[in-house]
Amino acid sequence: MESDAPTWDDLRVLLAVHRHGSFLAVGRALGLSTSTASRRIDALEAALGRPLVLRTTTGTSVVPDALDLVALAEQIERGLQAIRRDGQAAPFAGTVRISVGEGFLRPIAPVLAAFQELHPETLFELSSDARLVDIAGREADLGIRMVRSSSDVLVERRLGTIRYGLFASERYVARRLPQRHLGRGDFAAHDFLGFDGALRRMPPEAWLVARGAARFTLRSSSDLAHLAAVAAGQGICLLPELVGRDAKLVEITTDFTGDEAPPAIDAWLVCHKDLRSVPRIRAVAKAIEEAFRRILEA
C-alpha cells in the first residue's frame, strides 16, 4: 500500500526531537504532552515504513537516514517564518484585480500608479471587458459600476455622479456644426455614435433618440471605439464629461437644461464583502474612492 505523505504537524515534532533530544523537552517546546509527541513519531514511522528516531534510556535522537526529513522540516519552517515576516512588514503585498469600463481606464491609471509608488509590493490586474465581470463570483476584487447590484455578497460605495455631454471633433464641427450648439430641432440633421446590445436601453441612448437623433453612423459597446470614431469626425457622441474633456474633444452645447439636460448616472465602487478586511484591497478601494470623488465633484 502506498505510504501517506508526512504532514508539517508530524515533521515539526521530528525537528523538535532532533533539536531537544527527548520527548519531554519536545512536549514543552511544542505545547504537547510527552505521549502525544511520541505517538506522532510512531505514526510518522508507520506511514513511511522506516524507523526515524532512536529511543534510549538517556534520551532520543534522529537516526542518520531520517536527516533528510529534518532538512525538509527546517526548509518548511524557514518558509513559514518568511511568510509571517512578509505579512507583517508588507501587508499590501499581493495582486488586486480591478474591473472598470473602458471610459474609466484613463482616470484610474494615475490612481493605481500613485498607489504603487507608495506600495511597490502591490500588483494590479485591470480588466476593461464590455461585459460586467462577476465580482460576486470573485472574477475581480473591485469594480466600478454604473448600475447597482442586487447581490447580498457585494458592498457598494457611491463614488459620485457621471455627467454626460455631447462631444465632436474639430473636423466635424468645422464641416457640420460651426456654431458648436444643437437646438431642439437640430438633432435629426446630424450624425451620432450610438450603443449596441443591452446598452441601447441605457439612459444615454434613450436621451439622444428622444431629442430626435435618428442617424447613427456607428454603434458599439466599446468606449474606446466611440472615442476613436468621434476623434475621426464620424459623428457626435454622448460621453461622460470627464472622458470627452480629457480627450480634448469639442463640447457641444444644447438648449436642454434642468430635467431635460443630458443624463447623469451614479458610479459605484463594488467589492465582495469577504474582501473588505484584506489590507491591500481596503487600501486600494480607499485610494480609488478618494480620487474619483475629487474628479467627479470637480
Global mean pLDDT: 87
Distance between the termini: 71 Å
Number of E strands: 12
Radius of gyration: 31 Å
The ordered H/E elements are HHHEEHEHEEEHEEHEHEHEEH
Biggest sheet descriptor: 10 strands, mixed
Unreliable runs: none
Structural class: alpha/beta
Number of domains: 3
Q: What sort of overall outline do the alpha carbons produce when their principal axes are compared? A: rod-shaped
| Helix count, DSSP H or I runs of 4 or more residues | 10
CATH architecture of the largest domain: 3-Layer(aba) Sandwich
What is the quaternary state of this protein?
A: single chain
CATH superfamily of the largest domain, please?
A: Periplasmic binding protein-like II
What is the class of the largest domain in the CATH system? Answer: Alpha Beta
CATH fold category name of the largest domain:
D-Maltodextrin-Binding Protein, domain 2
Q: Strand portion, in percent?
A: 15-25%
Describe the structure.
Strands 3, 4, 5, 6, 7, 8, 9, 10, 11 and 12 form a 10-stranded mixed sheet that branches. A two-stranded antiparallel sheet has the order 1-2. Helix 1 packs across helix 4. It has 3 domains: 82 residues, Arc Repressor Mutant, subunit A (Orthogonal Bundle), CATH 1.10.10.10; 100 residues, D-Maltodextrin-Binding Protein, domain 2; 103 residues, Periplasmic binding protein-like II (D-Maltodextrin-Binding Protein, domain 2). With 298 residues, it is an alpha/beta fold.
